[in-house]
Every structure is written in C-alpha cells, then in structure tokens.
Queue: 2 jobs
Job 1
Amino acid sequence: MHISLDKHLRDSKINHDLRHLIVKIATTAKYIHNAMQTGDLGLAGTSNMYGEAQLALDVLSNQIFVNELEDSYYTTCLASEEMEEEFKIPPEKQGKYAVVFDPLDGSSLVNANLAIGSIFGIYESDKIIGLKGDLQVASLMVVYGPRVTLIYTAKNGVHEFVLNAVGDFILSKENIKVEKVAKHFAPGNLRATATEGKYAKLVDYWMKEKYTLRYSGGMVPDINHIFMKGEGIFTYPSYKNAPHGKLRLLYECAPIALLMEQAGGRATDGKKRILDIMVEALDQRTPIYIGSEDEVRNAEKFIA
Ligand code: AHM
Ligand code: MG
C-alpha cells in the first residue's frame, strides 16, 4: 500500500496545523522543481545579504515559498537565506509557526546539473532571534536529484518520501537510522587544510583508514547520502578566512542537525551541540561536524 506524506503525518498523530504546514511545504517544493526544469537559470542581477550573486532561481524559489507560506495561514514569520530581514506575516493571515528556510541550497550547482535541495526548520514561535534548534517542532529537506525526495522529522523519527509521477510524495523509507561508525566521508572546505593543521590531520586519517569520499558540494545531497547509506560524516570547519565557517545555523545547520539527531547521529560545531546554539542573528554561521556519532566524536578530538 502507498502511504502519502499526509497519511504518514496523520498516522503519526502530528497536530492538524503542523501537518498542513508540512504538506504545504511539500506541495510548494513541486513548484520549485518545476521552475528548475523550465525556468530561467541566468543571474538575477541582485545579490543576497552575503554578497553572493543570486541565481534567478534563488530569487524565484524564495518568492514562491514566501507567497505560499504567507497564504497558508499557518505561519507567524518567515526568515530565509535569501532575505535580509524577517518577513512578518500580516495579522489577518497569522498562524502559529515561524518557518526558516534555505529555498535553494547549493544553487551554484544548478548549471552543472548536480543535485540540490531546499531546507526548512519549523518553530512554534512568533519570533526567531533567541531561539535554538532544539525548539524546532519539525524540520525537513527536499532533494532535487534524479528523483525528488523529501525527508522530514516532526520529532517522530526520520522518514523519506519520493515524488511519484502523479505528484504525490510516497513513503519510501521509514525510521531512517545512522550507524555510529562510518566508512564514507564528505569533507567540506578542504581549502582549510592549507592553514588548519588539525583539519589536515583529520582528512589524512580518513584517507589512511581508506574511507570512501562522497562529496558533491551540496550540503543537502551530501547529508542525504549519509541518511541513505545509514552512515557517514560531513564536515564544514571554520578557518582563518571564515572564522565561523560558511554554513548558516538557522537555515542549514539547525534543521539538518535535528534530522541527524532524530536518526541517531550527532551534530556539533566541534564542541557544542548545534541544537544548543542560540540564534543571535539571522545570518549567523557555524562550523559543523555531522553524521555517525563515533565519527563526529573522533573529528572533535582531532580538531580540539
Ligand atoms: P549556498 O547556500 O550559498 O548554496 O551555500 C551552501 C553550500 C552547501 O550546500 C555546501 O555544503 C557548501 O555551500 C559548499 O561550500 P564551498 O563553496 O565552500 O565548497
Ligand atoms: Mg544554503
């Protein structure tokens, strides 16, 4: 029997509003996928708050998610990697959830036709600053690859759905678990090994121990690889030029950390649980070590 995302949420007794919000995000992801296949992939001519050139697709995806979430009547405020400020939902459309997202993570990979993704964190809140990832009531990521898949947790384990030919997300993997020990490594920011001796030693260790490299340049597919193989480690350390790393706490690291912990894995900044870090700014960055528990602990030792 096919189990749809909506049915899975119902069977898991996820409350009405959260269920509808998650289904709304899933539906909207289909529009993004459609835009990806048919849309203009050129530069939009604007840059986001980090000074990165935005692809038209970034701008478009962000706009589509904002519009759809505003009109869902389930949200209070929105924050996205592609917006400088929090977007307050007008009073007549207020719900109870703050939604934070990266509408198109890994957008530089689009023209190379590699897999990319969208990431979402959901909080029951009417503000964002001062929250920490632990307070998320749900998080999810969508992978746009040869197949479109969605992985969610509403703190009920981690579950994967595949988009079928008639546009339904159908359960494909329930209760995904990540083993403690890994044989795959995804070392982000390898350029840091030029100046960070400890990170260079960690990468050396993985190579000497004959770990298998699986790195795509997109955090979503790289993390998805860990979920699908049931083991692995992904790292994105800081270094001199980027003292807090590159990846954003709110839009990338915290939602993915919740998924990873729900699957039995570990996610830290090298010392502290990602989910314990307080959000002090929308654009806050953090180094990240995430995946199989023993491997993350080992990485923490190397870089201590
Ligand atoms: P983006 O949000 O601007 O697309 O950047 C995030 C991406 C991650 O998906 C990936 O892990 C990382 O950037 C790769 O960074 P680098 O360009 O340093 O290799
Ligand atoms: Mg991103």
Note: The CA atoms of residues 225 and 232 lie 8 Å apart.
Job 2
Amino acid sequence: MSPISRCVDNDELARLVRQYGLSQPVTVTRPTLPSLSEFAASLEGVWSRCWLTNDGEVHRELEAKLAAHLGVEHISLFCNGTIALLVALQALEIDGGEVITTPFTFPATAHVLHWNRVRPVFCDIEDKTFNIDASKIEALIGPETRAILGVHVYGNPCKVETIRDIAARHGLKVIYDAAHAFGVRLRGRSLLVHGDMSMLSFHATKVFSTIEGGAVVSPSEELRRRVNMLKNFGIANEESIIGPGLNGKMNEVQAAFGLLQLRTVEREIANRRQIAESYRRHLAEIPGVSMMQDLPDAEHNYGYFPVLIDTDRYGLDRDTVYTLLKRFNISTRKYFHPLVSHAPCYAELPSAQPDLLPVAERAAREVLCLPIYGTLDPNVPQVVARILREVHAHVA
Ligand code: T4K
C-alpha cells in the first residue's frame, strides 16, 4: 500500500483528482521566452559580424546593461554560475584550507570548494531565511579558515553586516553565492555589493536567464580584470600567460538571449510577486504548512516559493505531499534535499554530522518548492491550496 493510500481513501483521492487535477502538467519553474522571431532578429548582428564568442560586441553590451540594471560597477559574465564561483575563489586566492559554508544549498556551492582543494566546514542555518546562521560561524573558525561562503538562499539576503564584522575580526574573505539573488536589493542597494565577491547564476531555471550563464561581481576594477583573465585561460594577450586560468566565457548567442531577457525581467518579477501573494493568501492557516515571508528591508525576486510541511500538524510528510501533488499534474521540488553535507565526499567531515546541523536537517526534510514563474496560470496557487486543505481535512 502506498503512503498516500494509507492516509487518504482511494475513492476520495480519485474524486479530488477529478475535481482539481490540472489538464496540463505544471512544473516548478519554466523560463519565460522571447518569441523565436525576436530572438532570431537579435542574432542578425552576430551573424553578420561572424563573431561568436571571446568578449564580443553583444557580450560587452550585456555586461554594461546588467551592471546598470543591477546597480553594480564591476561585473564579468560567465558560461555558468558554477564556473563563475570557481573562478571567484581562485581570483581571491582561496585554493586550500577551510571555508565555512552552508549545507542547505545546491551541490555546486560545496563542490566548487572541493575543486579548489578547500575543505568545506558546514554551519547550520537560520529557520526563517534558510541562510547560514551568522551567530554560529565564529565557533567554527580555526587556524585553517580562509573565508566564509554564504548563499542568499531563495534570494533571501544573508546577515551581511554581521558576517562582514566576523570576517574583519578574523581576517577572512567573504564570498556570496547569489545564484538566486538576481535583482534583490537590501535597504535600497544591490545585495551584490556585499562581500569580497558575489556570483550569479543565469541558468534557464532562474528569474533572469542566458540559457546557461552566470556572472561574478567584483568590488574593484583590478579584481574584475583578474577574474576576466582567469576565465580566459589566464592569458592577457597573444604574448603573455599570467596564471592558471580556464575557459569560463559566455558566448554571443547566450548574451543576445540575455539582452532580450533584460527587457522583460521586471515584468517577470512583478508577475511572480503576484503568484507569491496569491499563495500566501490561499495557503494561510492550513495546519502544518508554513511559508516564508518577505523581509521588511529587502526587495525580493520571487525566484522560489518554498513551504515547510510539518508531518505531525499536517498529517502527511513532505515526501507524500510531493507524490500526491504529482497525481494532480503539479510538479514541485525538494530544494535542497538531500543536504550536500550528506554526499559521500563530505559525509565523513566532522562538521557534516547531522546532529550539528539540526535546522538544516529539518528544512531538508520539510521543504517543498511550489510552482512559481511569470507565465504560471494564476489559478494554480488556489488549486494547490484547495488540494492541501482538503487532503489535510481528510487525514486529520
Ligand atoms: N548555487 C546555487 C545556490 C544554485 O541554486 C545553483 C544552481 C548553482 C550554484 C549553480 O549555478 P549554475 O551552474 O547552474 O548556473 C536546477 C538548475 O539546473 C540549477 O541551475 C539550479 N541551481 C537548481 C536550483 O535548479 P534541477 O536539477 O532542479 O533542474 P531541472 O532540469 O530538474 O529543472 C527544474 C524544472 O525546471 C523542470 O522540472 C522543468 C523546468 N525547466 C528546466 C529546464 C532546464 C524548464 O521548464 N526548462 C528548462 O530548460 O537544477
């Protein structure tokens, strides 16, 4: 017997699926695309110049426009966010020792440390923002600690001032994985100005996309030049190789896609905000279902809509709700389960032990990201809420 049939009567479930099941599958996210003809037209210059990559004209235009849009001065575009973060660490000369980071993130965050020969030291998270718990960082600092790598999870700003002060006291660098934080502002300023460097992801599943892509935001032109050198094989020109670089470049086709996305990204975020508000209205007061709230000093981008399912109060566990919603043609994702600290390459580390990470362990057990994107049918939040409410009433 499946976990669902143990809790919800089969006939009743069939009735609910008939009543609320969606005719078309809905995914957790979906890129909002320009029209194909618009995209083709945007590539005419690329074709006529026959210049496809290596700091082309469109790449330069996107870099300038993104800097202005995001309110930052020094930005370098990349082929994806993972390579961008890898290079950011190299640019800051963090290639060994330990870095304090969060286990509640996409695996790329910790893997990039691994690829830089850095041992991750996992720190537990806050239960309101899902971000690294700044009050627990200092106890993890040791002689080998080189930096703090925070993640603005779901675009929620980390406690940037507290982290800055801890880093200053101990002579550490601060890097932010801002993969989720495109356009997020904190107290009226770009979140990306905090720390020694920030990385963005422009993957197809993000609020702003270049299909695959990413960026590093640097605090100075000198560091930006270093990042650019490292993402271009470490070569300065035909005559000189400065350092051990790799190939992290964004190409002209990605950049052209990004320029079109930039025209519509504000609308995308506004549409997502409406979806988030609708979820908040409709999901209110379902026992055992809790939601993240906007922070009063932040402007969010609504890239994700996570809820937590408390098994005892809701009556079903998160995994059963995940499977149940699939029956209604609604796909959700368990971002971020399993914790990256459970991966075999990290699981033996002292800081990866589950009893040291109780908040992260619970979040990974309970979190479910609901569908949110600009073109989502606006009725979906209400449908999801009705299903969750009726199923709860049934199992209660
Ligand atoms: N740090 C953090 C905190 C991150 O979240 C990420 C990436 C990174 C670093 C690394 O940045 P990148 O190197 O990726 O730039 C997705 C993304 O692949 C990944 O970029 C993202 N985070 C992560 C949170 O989500 P999956 O495995 O969930 O993707 P996938 O293929 O299952 O897609 C999810 C849903 O999106 C699909 O069910 C349908 C929809 N979708 C997806 C694609 C690719 C579309 O509608 N169209 C598409 O083209 O990882």
Note: The CA atoms of residues 308 and 363 lie 7 Å apart.
